[in-house]
Please model this.
Amino acid sequence: MDSPDEDELFEKYAEAKRKTKVMRKFLSFNERIEQMGGDNGRFSRKLATETSFETYFEDTLETWRAEDQGPDLESFVVSIQSNSIKTYAQLLHKADSIFESLCEHIVKPDCHSIPAFCGILSALARDLREKFNQYCWRSFEILINILDIGERIPENVEAAYLCLTVLVKVQATTLSKQLKKTFVHFLPLFASSRGFVRRFAAESYAYLLRKSSDLRSVSLYIVKQAYKTPHNYLSDGCALLFYTTYIGIAGTFHSNSSQYLRDIISSFVSLPNDDFKEFCLKILIQMIGYTIEYAKKSTYPNRFFYHHVLTKMLGESKNILEASCLMRLLHPCIVTSDDEFLNEGKNEFKTAEKVVFECPQELRSAIQYVVKFDDFKLDQYVVGFISETLLTIFNDDKNRLFSKDITLSIVEKSNDYEAIIDMLLKLIELDSFDLYLMPSLGKIADEIIKNDANNNGILRKITSFYAYLCSQRRPIKETIDRESRSNFFDLSHHSSYRDWLVKNLESDLDDEFLLDMLISWPWLFSQSKNVDGTENVIRIIEKYIKSDNKNILNSQVVLAAVSGIYMINKELLKTIDMIFVEQFIRKHNCCESSLLAFELFVKVLGVSKNVEYMNKVSELVYPAFLNSNGNVRLTALQILRNFKLKMKSITDEDGNVQCQTKSAFDVLFEAESSELINFRERLLHFRKLRHGQHKEYIPEGSSDIVEKIVLTELLSQFFVNFTPLWKGIHELLKEFAQEMNIDMFWGIVGQWIDNVNKHIKGSSEKTGLSENGRIIGVDLSNRSDFVNARIQSYNFFESIPEVAERRTRILSPLVLELYDDFNRLTSSTAKIENLIQDEEEEEENENEEETNEGEESEKRTEIAHILKALNSLLIVYSKFNAAKATYLEPKLLEMYEKLLSTKYEGLQKSALACICSYRSSILAQYRENLDNLIDEDKLRQTLIYFKLSNDEDDVQVIDEHRPVIVPILLRILHGKLIANPKKKGAISRRNGIIYVIGGCRSDELTFFFKLYFSQIYSIFGSSSSFDEIEKICQKEGFFSNINLRVFLG
Model:
């Protein structure tokens, strides 16, 4: 009889082990009570179930003895002499010895009878009733250790749950009189890292807490105990406890829930402000959070009772400190989610949850009451609550005057102008803000300018507020489309600030302050009034345009200033020399703000019909089309659309002359402006510019720059992460690759790829796009997926191998560079290279921290990205017809051979395909089996076709083929050995590989061993002595810097 396969045995063992880990459902305390009868009466009847024995103890003992509970239970039975315990009197007489023996056996290490002992303990408690009080605390300690500290054996945990449930219910009268002592014993459960343990503890103790006549003092004691050893788990346990006190089951609440909630909150809001009170409030906020989530799923009529309780308490608060605490608790009840958000992992939109607040009128009265306090002051919580309330509950027509009155009352009562500005900033989305609340900002600015003009901090904040508001209401990006400079707020309240701004509008201010002033400057003057300060703004434009500063704020200052002048008197922009403007564009490498400013200059100059100037501007803004930001490309196209030039006349086959009315810039603009979700429309526009047809849209007399822009714009669509779009882009690019001048095509493609690679490597082109500007919606941080764009461009090359083969001078360095990056990240010697080279130099990084998890994750992601890109280019090279004629062919062949030895299956397949492209007739005979050998699913079945030993005259590789096939075979098998997959059949797989290798001849084995230990040879050398090896190993930091994982086979 054959012995069972060890892989099958291992699989059976693993399956059995997985089954033992399946946990049963842990029932909550309330669910346990419900199973036993639900209410007190039914529970008592359940406990009083008739039995043939006089005591529950004897009944339970006999029941468990009938099951196989191991020697621990039998040892306990012998120790208590169970035959002499048949009556209640005997049980009562021997209770002490029974309990002691039970405790002794249940706490034994590796006890296998814990379910039985828990059942016996609960039976003993039911028999002794009030006489069990003396054993209660010791029993709690034992059960809590099982639940919280003991191993997670499902049967033990469930038995301990049931026993603890019975003890709490049976001893409820006693425990409710000693709530503080009971909580101390339950404390480990409340601090447990296991969520279900904390929930059970909360439900158990809440059952007792409801019986308390002094809930406030007990609640305070509970949090004081938790504060002694503050921990997130313990805080969560306390929040669960308070929350569970007033909830019921099946979505209901306790009949006295309002009073319970009021008592719990009242215990803490009157405390003096200190760290302990902050600790308490965080627990209460968490409690309210649990309540909100519970109420959302409830159909209970009075499920929003907590709105009424908190609002009423706010209206009864005695001072602003109490009111602030209650506002913090009310705040979660009025917060809304975003209008729409994409569900994680699902391509579907979910509508926002609307605020449901049951007592808005009571809340309105409570806020008015609080604002009238003598000690009223604004803090971050009051500001956040009032602003959120006005935005979510009172943001309608009938409450506009209320919002105005409350805000003005706060402005009059509070001298904390910074807090008031913060509140106004939060209220900026209020419908009535511009009409009713903007005068408050003007009043504050007037007060500051008159009484504290040297307070630079508050003036900066006011200026930032004006700038933010103007950017929101009148975006700078819409300056060109704006027909008039209509004001959106009453200017009569802001004259003091306007005069101050004009007086201080100078170029000597720092960039941020000056930018905020320039954004708001044109909106502080009415259309009918002369605007002061234009001379200063023109000087600022001239200074900043001529400056060598490449900071993004420099560009945004110019944009804000030019935009202001454009709206007030655009003719003044003609005084600026365009030579300096063009230098300014080049300096900022066509960032969005510089292009928007340039667009305003071009608009002022009017429609141009000068084709030479169009060529010059096209060259100037060409870097914008390399940008991954669609808004930048769109702005550049909008600039070029200002040229109205005659298109080339095209004569068709019938002799008809056609002339397009739109230029290529118009078509590209329409394509870039189309909604991404309607990708077919975008492709429809791009297809108008197919190679050949695109000439109809190129102006007469234009240079090659227009074609460059068309092709670059098509390539930049790879920055758009929308898969359905890419197939159409591939088709269009393929036509350009096949029909366009090859040098021009690859010059453009090479420049685009270089730009992408620079961003991937983190090399800044000094575009400023890595910075965030201050103007809303302009110069946003660059978060484009350059890695995916590179992969998509390499995937495109797969469709044009005949064209790519003619320009391997561009592609070969890219492949080898990716291979170097791959080696850098996966080689064991990468980390210690400097360590060995600089033996005699002083170590600079001896205190360098170990790589954390985040860095490891980053490294894995980088490897994955490089693998995809490298694999894509290898597939391109595998389709070449003349592999030996490629640029840098010797280095490429060496790379192919080394990649065959890698553990990555995709790279092995691509590398083998590249080697096969050399058209070896011998290799072609084995190609199919070699491919199958790389395929992990076919590996074991394919190994038999590569038998190298001739012990049974069944060798599969003949002698004439061995010099060609065996090195390739050994490289592939080396990769399979180091891959070491953790799955069924791993051992027999490894044995099969070693069996094939065992058939090698001596020179072939030498080749394999050099290959297998190449990482070690690269560190120590192939001829190092033991002394030299020992010296290297003893070097400090050697083993912490070497990647030992690569040696694991």
